[in-house]
């Protein structure tokens, strides 16, 4: 009998190297600003004034914050 070795598919998961988080707080209303800025506020999980959300510190979130930097306060955790 011939034995065949089958390669088992090993999946590797990417582990986040930096576990840094940032807290984003909405300090100014998005009323009167463009639609894309309003959508960015909602996408960051901010609903009402002074609401805050803890998000991972990555380039996507940083780009969204840069777009509405005049409306939010950012703290590194």
Summarize the structure.
With 77 residues, the chain is an alpha+beta fold. Helix content is 23%, strand content 21%.
Describe this structure in words.
With 77 residues, this protein is an alpha+beta fold. The protein has a single domain (21-76), classed as Ribosomal Protein L30, Chain: A (2-Layer Sandwich), CATH 3.30.1390. The chain has 2 helices and 3 strands; from the N terminus they run βαβαβ. The protein has a 3-stranded antiparallel β-sheet, with no helix packed on it. The radius of gyration is 20 Å and the shape is elongated. The protein starts with 20 loop residues before the first strand and ends with a strand. The model has no long low-confidence stretch (mean pLDDT 88).
How would you describe this structure in keywords?
77 residues; alpha+beta; Ribosomal Protein L30, Chain: A; three-stranded antiparallel sheet; 21% strand
Global mean pLDDT: 88
**Distance separating the two termini:** 61 Å
The structure class reads alpha+beta
Low-confidence stretches: none
Q: How many helices does DSSP assign?
A: 2
- In CATH's first tier, which class applies? Alpha Beta
Approximately how much beta-strand content do the residues carry?
A: 15-25%
Topology:
Elements: E1 21-26, H1 35-43, E2 52-56, H2 59-67, E3 72-76
Antiparallel strand pairs: 1-2, 1-3
